[in-house]
Predict the 3D structure of the following.
Amino acid sequence: MRILQAEIYGFGKFTDTKFDFEHKLQFITGANEAGKSTLKAFISAILFGFVDRRQRFKRYEPKNGARYGGKLIIEQEKQLYTLERLEGEKGGQLVITSLNTGQQLPASLLQRWLNSLTSDLFEAVYAVDQTSLEQIRQLAPEELEKSFLTIAASGSQQIMMLQKKLQKKAEQIYKPNGRLPQLNRLLQTYEKQTQELRAANRDSHLFVEWEKTLEKEKEQQEAVKNQIKILEKELLRQRQLDNLWPTFVELERLRTKEKNQQPIGLTPQEFTALQELQLKVKTKQDSSNSLTAKSQALMQQGQQTINLEELQKYDAAKDQFDNLFHQLDVHSTEIQLALELQQTVNQQLSSPQAASRENEVLRRTRKKVQKPLFKQNRRQLALLGWALIAGSCLLLSFFSSKITIKLLAVGGLLAALFAVWQSMSKKSGQSESRSQNSLSTGSAQERDLMVQSVEAKRLQQLLEQLAFFTQASAFCTASLQLPVELLKRLARLQQFKTRIKDALRERSKRDRFLDYYRQEHERVTAELNALTEQLKQQLQKNGASSFAHLQAQYLQQQQNTEKNAKLQGLQTQLPAEVQNELRRYQSREEFKAHLSKKQDELQHQKERLSQLTVSITEKEVRLEQFGKSVRILRLKQELANKQAQILAEVDSWLALNAANQCLEKVLEIMSQHTLPHVMQLAQHYFRRLTRDQYEKIVMVERHLQLVDKNKTQYDVRELSRATAEQLYLALRLAFIVQINRTIKLPVLIDDCFVNFDEQRRNELLALLEEISAETQIICFTVDISFLYDKVDKENILRVD
């Protein structure tokens, strides 16, 4: 686990504050009371829960009424999560959210990440502070070595400190040669009272005999009690074995199946790769099927939207149709005009008054033309006369030799020309006047007739221009069922051209899509074949005929793995001696019979104990009836009281010693498992811290020995305080790195540089940088002057 950011809603002096831990080695600095310890406590509170209200000074509740709590952004197994804890019951309300998926996860997941680590254990193992160094300085030389062994085995001094407390309490109860401990004083008093009782009982011989018999029966009673205890212990053991019998049967069954297991040797990573390959094959198959379906759908859609029959007709005579369509485009204006004129003429001819109106207009026009016809002929004769006179005068002026005649001829010529001009001007004016009168007096029906005549002529001209289309479209007359009339034929051809253009455009669009789908299908098919071949090779390599077969084999292998894990778990529950003990019985019935026999034997011993108890009681009553003095009874009572007190103190003393021995055994077991690895790492770290002054840390009969570069061995009790502190840090850090490979948590170091000189600070800093490559380290310190030229500014976070 790596902490990336701490966001405090309200905790101690902090409100709505964020701290980014961007680096694996992060220094937190600030003056005293700046909030370093508060930030450290906040990290522990989010991970392990808030302290209960009975320890309110350790809760760091905000004074300004802000919301109590905050959150951490962590990286766990290459995934990002937020751990948000707010005020609530049982350490606060915890919400875990995955930043990768946004999904809210169960709060119990944090306990799995922490391996059920408690806050106290986290403080003891993962937190290194100045207080622990001070404890090292205060230890006596004979305690120093045991402290180092405890640290190397468990990561902290708690076991040794607890052993010291237990030993001190045990010595307060009893010391072999002591006089002041409580049990020593009780034993002395008990011995004196026993001597007094014996002296008082010497007077009565019969009393002594009966007492001897009573003592003998009491001894038998104790023996029977011991036998009953042994039988009860054995019976308890048998009942425990009886409860373990189903587990033993399951263990034997799994052990038998384990012999028949034949693993395929496929790792989860390989199976995941094959799953991904199978998924790729399926995806490619789906893509191929999808492309085929799209192509078919496009073909079906094309059949519905495209007139294939007309396209076939077009394709059969493509060049001729293209030429015809070109001519239609070239003469589109004339064709459109002709169609409009035809429509106009048809509308006019379709009217019932059209014929009568035309005849009336022709009659009136005929009359108006005939009236001025005579006047026009007369005027033409006058002009002819004047023209003859002018010609004669002209001839005379050229051929006569007399000047007088020439002058007269010129005068006559000018007069004739003036008369002709005047006649022509008058004719033009009259003609224009008549024309205007004709137009002004003409009716609207006459004008309409004239317009119709013009439109009909224009239509006829256009039809003559477009007549070549009849011959040009002769090749498709039958296939398109073209009419004989030219304009209807042209209209039909234009409609066919429009439909063909749309159909060609749709077909081109469809063909582009089909070509794209075909290329994609070929590409996907090639990739599918390659992936299928790769999958086939992998399946053959693993001896499977199909992926389903391989998946079944892998699932069987996983089940076998789970069974093996279960088998190991059952073997842990059933030690070898328990298994061997249960194997002595052929069946559970035989075991039950043995158990029943033990129960009968126990019952017999209890009956015997009951008989002895009755006999002893009778004898004690008779002894009392002998009338012994009150002093003997008082002494016996006092002796009995002293025995009870002694037994109680002995139980306490034995419990303390048993606890101490248990801790010693735990330390020994932990040493066997973790000590070699921790010692190897600690040796490397200690060598770094001492600049190669000490090369090895060795164990000689459970005693730590240091070997320097001159191969000289030193006992740890010979070390200076500074070197002892270096050894302490090497062991603590080595244990943290070792256990952090299982329980990945950040290391919190609080002011461990205070009493170090510059050289030791530099060596420790270099070591922390090395360790931070695999374990996040957060250092809290007041003085950072020695860091300025050693680490980047980004590694230093200032708390104000």
In short: Residues 143-204+650-742 form one domain. Confidence is low (pLDDT under 50) at residues 368-374, 431-446. The chain has four domains: 1-117+746-800, 143-204+650-742, 214-266+546-627, 332-465. Residues 630-689 form the longest helix (60 residues).
